[in-house]
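Renewal narrative, Specific Aim 1. Our central claim is that a sequence can be written position by position from structural information alone. The example that follows is taken directly from our test logs and has not been curated for this report. It begins with the structure tokens describing the chain, in the order in which they were read.
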């Protein structure tokens, strides 16, 4: 098998060649048909997150070992199954749930493996899909595609699931209030499409880039606002019908999270998803006085991915601008992501 590996943080990825692994126990080996390039791959490749105030969180101190094959948004075709792998056969095409935990702790047993303290996430702690083949520890992490093409399904594993899980945290507000989507990159556009599939009230996109605002409008956002406009906050509140009940910050920088907090009505909810970095100051009395909820959301659970796939598998989401690229081009895509030049998704097609 061939894989494209990060060998040193921030340096170009390198090809590695080895014999195809043989699945043992419950393992399943897939040939990779589609591997999405996610913005978080940029952070993994760089090796750190900016925590604000000059602090940095190094991924290698958090158990990310190199060399690593990135890629956590994968669709593959089963090519070999271990002796204890039930429910899949050679030739099946499947979407892979990558946020795999230890499987034995309380959190994993509760079904929230994405929050496990001993994670085995594919493409982060274990080898992922920037490769010809991908090993998955158990068939329960493999989901049928329905009517979706591999290209349509792959981004559901991360950007789709992340957007969906954040929306689920807003509860019934999705149905009754417009959801403010801060950041109309891959994740934000996905959220806009999913709100439609959920038959929600609608979305209001916020992005500094006019092209991304146009993409959001094209996907059905009710309004698209430039946060750099001098009256951005007033525009936002007006578009939301007086104040914001429900917002998701897919950027997570000082300006966006501040805007999200400032826009909330009493009882409003802000879900922070983006990992851009920085810090904000909040007056503590405002938390109770405005009864605000600020909640973080990190990917989503296997059950949520199953629910999302059920929601969209027979009526795939309107295709977010997606381009397929060869495995060899992964490094260029990472560079474009760093420069903020990618609109929509890029999906590698190794097979
Ligand atoms: Zn991702
Ligand atoms: Zn666990």
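The sequence written for that structure reads:
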């Amino acid at each position: 098998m061939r894989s494209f590996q990060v060998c040193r943080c921030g340096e170009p990825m390198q090809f590695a060649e080895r014999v195809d692994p043989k699945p043992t126990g419950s393992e399943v080996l897939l040939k990779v048909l589609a591997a999405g390039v996610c913005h978080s791959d940029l952070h993994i490749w760089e090796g750190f997150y900016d925590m604000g105030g000059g602090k940095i969180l190094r991924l290698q101190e958090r158990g990310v070992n190199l060399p690593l094959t990135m890629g956590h948004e994968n669709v593959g075709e089963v090519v070999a199954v271990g002796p204890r792998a039930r429910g899949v056969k050679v030739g099946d095409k499947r979407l892979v749930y990558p946020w795999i935990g230890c499987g034995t702790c309380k959190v994993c047993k509760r079904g929230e493996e994405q929050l496990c303290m001993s994670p085995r996430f594919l493409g982060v702690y274990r080898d992922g899909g920037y490769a010809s083949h991908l090993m998955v520890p158990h068939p329960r992490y493999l989901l049928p595609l329905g009517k979706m093409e591999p290209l349509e399904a792959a981004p559901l594993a991360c950007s789709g699931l992340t957007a969906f899980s954040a929306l689920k945290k807003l509860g019934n507000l999705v149905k009754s209030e417009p959801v403010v989507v801060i950041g109309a990159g891959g994740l934000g556009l996905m959220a806009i499409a999913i709100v439609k599939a959920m038959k929600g009230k609608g979305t209001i996109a916020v992005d500094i880039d006019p092209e991304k605002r146009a993409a959001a409008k094209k996907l059905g956002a009710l309004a698209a606002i430039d946060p750099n406009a001098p009256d951005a906050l007033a525009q936002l509140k007006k578009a939301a019908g007086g104040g914001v009940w429900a917002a998701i910050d897919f950027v997570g920088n000082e300006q966006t999270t501040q805007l999200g907090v400032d826009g909330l009505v009493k009882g409003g909810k802000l879900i922070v998803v983006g990992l851009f970095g920085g810090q904000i100051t909040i007056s503590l009395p405002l938390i109770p006085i405005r009864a605000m909820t600020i909640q973080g959301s990190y990917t989503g659970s296997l059950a949520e991915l199953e629910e999302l796939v059920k929601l969209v598998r027979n009526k795939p989401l309107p295709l977010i601008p997606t381009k397929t690229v060869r495995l060899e081009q992964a490094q260029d895509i990472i560079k474009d992501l760093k420069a903020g030049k990618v609109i929509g998704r890029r999906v590698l097609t190794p097979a």
